[in-house]
Specification:
The chain is of the alpha/beta class and 182 residues long. It contains 4 helices and 10 strands, in the order E-H-E-H-E-E-H-E-E-E-E-H-E-E. The chain has one domain: 3-Layer(aba) Sandwich (Rossmann fold), CATH 3.40.50. Helices cover 21% and strands 29% of the residues. A hairpin with a 4-residue loop joins strand 3 and strand 4. It is globular and about 55 Å long.
């Protein structure tokens, strides 16, 4: 992969999206790929703790607070109003990578894998989400429509191979991201 590519990991709450993302990160990093992630949070979140200097800066009115150490840095940015940042806007802020795994943002993704566990008793997303190209499941059998690939949820190497073969390259120009088929 010469340029950044996107692959979404989607599914209902409790399906195991984060667990799969972590396993994929370990597998793909071991292959020498630079992999970044974007995770959508449905509710407000705070990486800061009350009483810490950065929290005090933010609550006093700072629009952005950058916290840095010798080993990492984080930028906290306050959003105006109820508008959510778009996936292209977020990607444009990231450092170059070979692959970006995106958890959430399912309607904005060019391509995704759904984690589906029938035992959760929740409806699958693939019937109404055309971006889903594969379903990773722990079900021994699963009736899928033609063109939708079934992946064994416990076979990380096969899922990683699918990700590498089907992730969509993206070009970022200013604040715009365009996904196109490789």
């Amino acid at each position: 992969m010469g340029q950044a590519a996107i692959m979404g990991i989607t599914g209902r709450s409790g399906a195991g999206k984060t667990t799969l993302v972590v396993r994929l990160l370990e597998t793909l990093a071991a292959r020498g790929l630079r992999v970044s992630t974007i995770k959508h949070a449905h509710h407000g979140f705070d990486m800061d703790r009350p009483g810490k200097d950065s929290h005090r800066h933010r609550t006093a009115g700072a629009r952005e607070v950058l916290v840095a150490s010798d080993t990492r840095w984080a930028l906290l940015h306050e959003q105006d109003g109820p508008d959510h940042p778009t996936l292209p806007d977020l990607i444009a802020r990231m450092a170059p990578a070979d692959l970006i795994l995106v958890e959430g943002f399912r309607t904005a993704l060019p391509v995704a894998i759904e984690i589906y566990r029938p035992t959760l008793g929740k409806d699958p997303l693939w019937p109404t989400t055309p971006q889903i190209a594969a379903v990773a499941t722990d079900a021994p059998t699963l009736d899928l429509p033609p063109g939708l690939t079934r992946l064994d949820l416990n076979d990380t190497d096969t899922i990683a191979a699918f990700v590498l073969a089907h992730a969509r390259p993206c070009r970022i120009t200013g604040n715009q991201t365009t996904g196109h088929t490789p």
